[in-house]
Automatic annotation (TrEMBL):
Top EC class, one word: isomerase
Name assigned to this protein: UDP-N-acetylglucosamine 2-epimerase
EC number(s) stated in the UniProt entry for this protein: 5.1.3.14
Record family assignment: Belongs to the UDP-N-acetylglucosamine 2-epimerase family.
InterPro entries in the cross-refs: UDP_GlcNAc_Epimerase_2_dom (IPR003331), WecB-like (IPR029767)
Record has Repeat as a keyword: no
Keywords, ordered alphabetically: Isomerase
Domain UDP-N-acetylglucosamine 2-epimerase: residue ranges: 36-363
PANTHER family: UDP-N-ACETYLGLUCOSAMINE 2-EPIMERASE
Amino acid sequence: QKIVVVAGARPNFMKVGPLFWELARLRAAGADNLPEMMLIHTGQHYSDNMSEAFFRDLGIPEPDENLEVGSDSHARQTAAIMVGFERVWLRERPDWVVVVGDVNSTAACALTVSKLGGRLAHVEAGLRSRDRSMPEEINRLVTDVLADRLYTTDVLADQNLLAEGVDQAKIRLVGNIMIDSLARGLPKARSLAVAAELGLAPGAYAVVTLHRPSNVDAEPSLRAMWLMLGELQRRLPVVFPVHPRTMARLADFGLLGLAKGWPGLRLVEPMGYLRFLGLVADSRLVLTDSGGLQEETCYLGLPCLTLRQNTERPVTIAAGTNHLVGLEPADILAKVDQLLAATKPAPNPPPLWDGHTARRIMADLLAG
Ligand code: UD1
């Protein structure tokens, strides 16, 4: 068997690493009939701190090939990935292509494989925000309608797929592969003592991330979030690793100067996987528009305020850790005050978020 695994952007890397660890585990255990497994990096993310740092931290093998597509408009980026990946597929003719998550690389490779008649597996299938203004929602819909095998994280995802008419026989509830990376990395991440390095007391600071185009690309919404952070840093220290898109917009809109009067706000570069995990694990609460952080805080038992109007990960709300707070600064700060006065939620991960999802996926792929 030959399996080609695709990764392109930061949130993909922690979802492909565990598949390669599982292959290594099977090899060390002397399993026979192991597949040849290749890794293709599309190059959607290319900066060291958005890509290579994750390969180092997660011990992911060097990609067999990097398509080096870089940043561009959605159409041009998607097209470049398709052209590059078509060449790879025709050369390798794999039994399976595995795509993960919901970035442009995911949908572009899904479309390419399906048109070539190849078999496609999607890890993290079935998540839906029902908001088609999010590029990721389009990517999720396209990928899932094309996939031959759909690996889901929770029962709500299964229900979404069944409601869209996906054949039950293609769906496998396997749990959350990102939690495999988290569970394995956590002891090392904590040992890095990132909070202490920043002069912060564990359990007494907030971590913020913001990068959704809907939040940062227009001046009024970014300004509102920025002023909210100005208020937040009066309540507790705030660490904000700033995504390159967000940093560019903060500069464009002339907002950075305001932060000179905000001593509690630390703007830092995007961090690698382990440092960021350590920073989050020791925080008091998280404010984010990320998808993955809603799940990581769920596993860790940390309050998460999701700065969006909707989420494709409602299972984390049901678990009690995640709060969908929207974009109104007064509402967000009121929720912060409420959560700071309350005790921390208990970790309450959904079934099968247990660190062994890659094992279930590989067993299923190898079974045909
Ligand atoms: C992409 C994903 C998003 C994911 C996010 C995580 C899509 C549609 N979006 O959004 O789901 O949550 O990654 O980071 O696939 N840039 C760099 N270095 C890099 C990559 C990007 O400087 O390595 C800058 C470029 O100026 C680029 C901008 O960031 O134009 C945005 O990058 P892009 O890959 O287009 O989208 P993201 O916002 O990162």
